[in-house]
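Holo prediction. Input below; ligand is riboflavin.
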Amino acid sequence: MSSLKGPGSNLRIAIVHARWNTEIISALVAGTRKSLLASGVKEENIIVQDVPGSYELPFAVQRFLMNPPIESSNNPTGPISAVTDLLSSASLTDLTAPGPPAFSAQASSGSSKAPLKTPFSAIIAIGVLIKGETMHFEYIADATSHGLMKVQLDLGVPVVFGLLTVLNEEQGRARAGMDGKHCHGEDWGKAAVELGVKRQVWAEGSFV
Ligand code: RBF
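Structure of the complex:
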């Protein structure tokens, strides 16, 4: 009998998305959530945060990874209020932990007042850049992709590249699964789970 848990059952995954081109973004986020849930990631372990535009994604991802939001059961005011300044309380050592199992040691060894801040297993950055008449598209696409690559290598946490760079709205709608086509968000959810699991396995020195 197959397990109901799924590979993502012990992962904590963040989705950070831009607000430009909201309709397409909403479809991409919905597809991503759907595939995370289908892979066994628990609803309460999917944290979603938005930023104004794609250019803000690398900064938000870096902040989120440096200081994961306090878990809702321990945080009556919700995750956003937990995004305080991060360097004060987080260290790179925390981020090298493969995910929630390593965190439990941190939680249980701390005082009972310590907020529960489980590190993310992976983070998915979602934005939609539509080419316009000026050079903004090129600059934002370049800066955002390099920023996202830098942050995942600097912090050692998988950052899934959910940035669509399209020539027009129609192309964006097609890739978001609107008009009945395949939603790329589903691939991003699967990639986050695969990398989150592999990161845990690799951290244990195993490569099977
Ligand atoms: N952000 C996006 O996520 N997608 C876009 O298509 C997009 N186009 C932009 C076009 C122009 C001319 C400007 C000025 C900004 C655009 N942004 C877009 C917003 C950008 O990512 C960022 O939020 C702002 O530049 C503020 O830092």
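The beta strands are 13-18, 46-51, 122-130, 159-166. That is the main takeaway for now.
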